[in-house]
Prior knowledge:
This protein is of the alpha+beta class. The protein has 36 helices and 30 strands.
Amino acid sequence: MEISHEPQNLQFKDRRADALGNFSRLPDELICALLDYLTPPDIARLACVSSVMYIFCNEEPLWMSLCLKKVNGPLQYKGSWKKTTLHLEALPNECIDFRRKPLQFDGFSSFFLYKRLYRCHTTLDGFAFDDGNVERQNGLSMDQFDQEYDAKKPVLLAGLAECWPARNNWTIDKLLLKYGDTVFKISKRTPGKISMKFKDYVSYVKEQHDEDPLYIFDEKFGESAPGLLEDYNVPQMFQEDFFDVLDGDSRPPFRWLIIGPERSGASWHVDPALTSAWNTLLCGRKRWALYPPGRVPLGVTVHVNDEDGDVNIDTPTSLQWWLDYYPLLADEDKPIECTQLPGETIFVPSGWWHCVLNLETTVAVTQNFVNPRNFEFVCLDMAPGYQHKGVCRVGLLALDEGCLENMEKNMSCDKDNFNYSDLTRKEKRVKIPRSQESENHEGIANGASKRYNLWKHGFSYDISYLAMFLDREKDHYTSPWSSGNCIGPREMREWLSKLWVGKPLMRELIWKGACLAINADKWLECLVKICSFHNLPFPNDDQKLPVGTGSNPVYVMDEYVVKIFVEEGMESSIHGLGTELEFYNTLCEVNSPLKNHIPTVLASGILHLENGSYKIDSWDGKEVPDVLAKCNLIPEKGKGDVFPFGVRSKKLFEYRKAGSPESGPGSSAGSSSIWPYLITKRCEGKIFAQLRDELSLDDTLNLASFLGEQLKNLHSLLYPSFGNSSVSDVEQECSSANGMDIDFVSHKLDIPAEWELVVRTLGRKKKDVSSRLKKWGDPVPEKLIEKVDGYLPDDFLKLLSVSEENGMKRALKPLSWIHSDIMDDNVYMEPCCPFGSNGIAAATGNGSVNGHDNSGEAKSWRANYILDFSNLSIGDPLYDVIPIHLDIFRGSSCLLKQFLQSYKLPLMQKTPERGSFTPSDKFRRLSYHAMCYCILHDENVLGAIFSIWSELKTAESWEEVEQTVWGELNNYEGVA
C-alpha cells in the first residue's frame, strides 16, 4: 500500500465521505483503535469494503498489534507484520506470498497516519543531541556516591565497565556467533509472552520499520545464557542489595539484558517498588530523560486502583514523546537529559521518572536493587492502600482540591501533625489528564508549566512526608494485595523476617520498614497486651516481627506461640478460632492419637480496641461473648450448639459468602478492631519448608507415611451433626436479607445436611468460575478457561455418587473434618538418630533443633507435628490431599502413593450392585473429583499445577491436566 503525501489537487474529490459513510465522522485515531479489536479474518474482509478501509486495514502498525496479541511464545518475523500474522493463521503459503502491486488512491489524506508513518521510517542520526545536564563522574568513591547521589539524583559514571569481558564481547556480531540459537524474552505491551531466537531477532532488527520496535528485555538471561553472567560484575557501589536474602523464585526479577534497535526504548515509568537501578551500556548510544519523583511527565496518565493500589501508566512511546511532546516544553519544564555512551553507567535513584530512546542499536545490562537508602520507600510502596502510591509517583496531582487545602492548613501549622485522617477522597482513581495530539500547542505548553508549579508546591520525596498518606486502617493481612507489587504478601513477610535475622545491626531501619509495610508496630502492641493479660514473658528483640508466611500474624517465643486471627476480616476470624476450639475439644473427648501431633492449647481469647485502648476477653469458643453481641455478630441459629461459632456456623457462613458478589479478602462483615487469638505450646524442631532440600529420600518417604497416618486419624473423627434444617434456615435468612435468588439442587435430597451444604457451596462457586480463573491470570491457559464450564459437573450432587436403595438415597463419598491447608510451613519435623536399638529412627534427647548433636554429626529428621488448624472445615477428605500433593510433595506420584498406603481409609465406597454408576464414569474417578476441587479452590491452586507441570500450559483439555496431576488416585484401592 502507498499513500500519496503530495499537496491536495483541487481536481481530486475527497473520497473519505463516500468510502467511510457514517464512520467518516470519527477521527482516524479512533478508527484505528476500533480496528485493533478485530481478528485478522475480519480485517481482511473489511479491507475489501472501500478504498479508505483498504488503507486503514493494511497499516503495518495494525498488523503488528494483531500479531503480538496472537503470538504466545517464540516468534519468527517474516519480513512484514501482515505476513507474520498470516503465517500464524496457518494459511497456505501461496495465499501468503500472493503478490499484487499495492493499490494507490488519491483524494485521501490523514495527518494521523502520516505522523505514524514518519515515526516508523525516521532515522535518528540526523538529530542533534547535546551531552545533556546529568553530572558525569569518573573515579567516584563509595563515600562520594553515598553522600552526593544515592537516593538523591542521577549520575553518569565512567570507567566501571572497563575491565568487563562484556566491554568487548557484547557486540551484535559476537553475540550472534555465540548465542544465535538462544531464546530471549521480548518486551512489548501485550498480554502474551513473546520470545525470539537471537538470530531471528537480529534478522528482525535489520528488516523492521516499526514505530516502537521490539527489543530484548530478559530478566532470565542468566538462566538461558549463563555465560553472560561471567562477562560483567556488579559495580561495588551497587553491590548491597537487601533482596539477596531471598532465594530462587521468591526473589523478584532484578537484572535484565537489554538489546534494542534505533527508535526502540523504554517509555516513561518509575521502576517497580521504588527500587533504584544502574544501567551500563556496552554498545551504541542511548538518550535519557529524567524527572524527579512526583513530577509526572507531559503526556503521561497515571491510574492507581483504589481497591488494591495497583498502578498503571498510560504513556506515549519513547520516540513519540521525543517528537511530539518534548518540543512543547518550556526550558524550565524540560527533563534532566543525557546521551549515554558505550562503557558508561547511569544511576537512576528511587522514584525518579525516566524515559530511554535508543539512537542506535544498543546492548546494555541493568539491575535494580534495595539498599539502606531506599529500603523504606520500597516497604512503603508495597504497603496496602492507594493514595500514598499516587503521591509517590505524581506528587500533589494525586490529591483533589479539598485534600490540598487540608494539607496546606496542616503544614502551615505543624507538618508533624499532618496525618491521613485529614484527607478525604472524592475520586475513585488518581488520574493525571493526558494531553492529546492537538493544534493548540500553546495550551499544552501552559499546562506543562502549571503542572511543574504544582509539583514544586510543597511536595517532598521524604519518607516521613510520604508516609502521612498511608491509610492506617488498611491492613497488610486482610487488604487486597496489589498485583503490580514485585513480590507477594507472604514473600514480603519472609523477606522482612530474613532481614531481621540476617542484619541485626540494621534492625532500627528494618523495623521502620516493617511498620510501613506490615503494621509491625500495631501487631507488636497487640502481642504485648496478650502477653501481659496471660502473665507470659514479653517478646525479646529477636521476636518482635511476626514469623511464617501464613495469613495471620504469628509470634514464636521461647516456650509458646501466639496467633492473632485476622484473615478475611473479623467474622471469618471468629469462625476460624471457634471451629479450631471445637475441634480441640473433640480430640480430647475421644482421646484421638492425633492429639499427640498437634500443639497443646494454652489459652485463647478476643482482643478488641475500645476508646483507643486494647482490652481482652477470655474465650474458649463456647457461648457468644458480649463484645461480639455488641457488634451484632450473632451465629446462625442452631439447636443446642455448644460452640456457637463452630464448624456448623462456619459452613453456613462459607455458603453465604460463596453466593455473595462482594466476597473476597477483607469483605467479611464486622469491626476491624476485634481480633481473636490463640496461644499454644511451642513445638520443637523445624518446619518442613526449611528442611526440604536437606532431607534424604527415606526421610521424605517417612514424612509421607506420617501424613497418611495423621490424616487417617483426622478423617476418622466424628464431626458435629448439623441437623436437617440448617440449609433451609440459611436460605431463608439469605433470601430475606439480600433479596437474592437461592439456587436449589434439582431434586429432593435424602442425604445429610452437611453434604447438601457442601454441594450447594460448590454450585455457587461454579457460577463465576471463568472470571475467577481470568483474575488468577497466567499461567492458566486461556483455551482451558473457555472449556471449564463444560468440564465441571452441571449438578455437583453427582460427585457424591449418590445411590438409591429401597427408596433411600445415600452418598458413597465419606464426609469428615478436613484441615484444608497442610502445606510445607504447617508441618514440623524433629531431628532423630538414624536408627534406634529396635531399628527405628529415634528422637534425640537433647532438644536440638538444628539437626546436629554435640559432636556435629548430622541426623535424619522425622515429622512430629501438624500446625495451623484455623482453616478447619467439614468436607470431602480428598480435599486435604490437594495441598499435600502440590505443596509438600511437589507433584511426586511416588510420595502420593506412599501417603495413600498409610492413609488406608476409603475415599469412595464401593459401588453397590444396583448402583447407577460404572467404573468408567468420570464421576467414579477420584482424579476427576480432585481436579474439580482444584478449579473451584479459594486459593490459586491451578497456578501451582501449571508451575510444577509446565508442559501442561499447552494442554488441550482439562482431562489431560487431570490425568497428569491426579492419575495416581485412580489406582488407590480405597475406591475399589
